[in-house]
């Protein structure tokens, strides 16, 4: 069954994006969440605050609110993200490094 439910906002984390749980079978095994503009889709129904903070950095990045994200729109951001991942791999991609650095 296709499950799509809104995730309750933690009291200690201001959220810009809208966070939802999406059925686990939609995601690849190693994917915990995907950010699409202001919408964050989580694999787990109860994601950790650290994961939500990490994805919030991507939300801000999508909207040009971080130092390394001068892109004008979401398509440019995703093209840049994909290029970074191809060139440097997921862990060393500048967007992932930024999210890990700012999530705490």
Written account of the structure:
With 104 residues, this protein is an alpha+beta fold. It has one domain (4-102). It contains three helices and four strands. The chain has a four-stranded mixed sheet, covered by helices on one side. Strand 3 and strand 4 (39-42) form a beta hairpin. Helix 1 (49-62) packs across helix 3 (94-102). The mean pLDDT is 79.
What attributes characterize this protein structure?
104 residues, 3 helices, 15% strand, four-stranded mixed sheet
Brief digest:
Helix content is 37%, strand content 15%. With 104 residues, it is of the alpha+beta class.
Q: Strand count, sense and closure of the main sheet?
A: 4 strands, mixed
- Please tell me the overall pLDDT: 79
Tell me the fraction of residues in β-strands, as a range: 15-25%
Write down the secondary-structure element order.
Answer: EEEEHHH
Number of domains: 1
Strand element count: 4
DSSP helix fraction: 25-40%
| Overall radius of gyration | 13 Å
Number of helical elements: 3
What is the molecular shape?
globular
Q: Give the N-terminus to C-terminus distance in angstroms.
A: 34 Å
Structural class: alpha+beta
The residue ranges in which pLDDT falls below 50 over 5 or more consecutive positions are: none
Task: State the strand order across the main sheet.
Answer: 1-2-4-3
């Amino acid at each position: 069954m296709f499950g799509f439910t809104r995730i309750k906002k933690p009291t200690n984390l201001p959220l810009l994006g809208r966070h939802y749980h999406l059925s686990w079978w939609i995601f690849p095994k190693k994917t915990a969440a995907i950010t699409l503009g202001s919408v964050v889709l989580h694999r787990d129904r109860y994601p950790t605050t650290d994961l939500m903070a990490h994805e919030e950095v991507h939300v801000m990045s999508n909207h040009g609110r971080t130092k390394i994200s001068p892109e004008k729109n979401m398509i440019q951001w995703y093209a840049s993200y994909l290029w970074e991942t191809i060139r440097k791999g997921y862990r060393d991609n500048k967007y992932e490094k930024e999210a890990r650095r700012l999530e705490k």
